[in-house]
Design brief:
By secondary structure, this protein is an all-alpha fold. The protein is built from three helices and no strands.
């Protein structure tokens, strides 16, 4: 992996954690647990399922 790709990955990782995680948590706490795990139309994933997948 070249240095520019490594730098891009490091910057992206820190932005995801430092900026977006705070905003995501602020939104999630507003949701009722039932809404969090509700599956949408056409078997789309629930918000909770998507977050669970992204946190791995």
């Amino acid at each position: 992996m070249d240095s520019s790709m490594h730098e891009f990955k490091m910057i992206s990782k820190h932005r995801m954690y430092d900026q977006y995680l705070v905003k995501l948590r602020a939104c999630i706490v507003l949701l009722d647990e039932q809404v969090l795990w509700r599956v949408g139309e056409a078997e789309t994933n629930s918000i909770g399922g998507i977050i669970n997948h992204r946190m791995r």
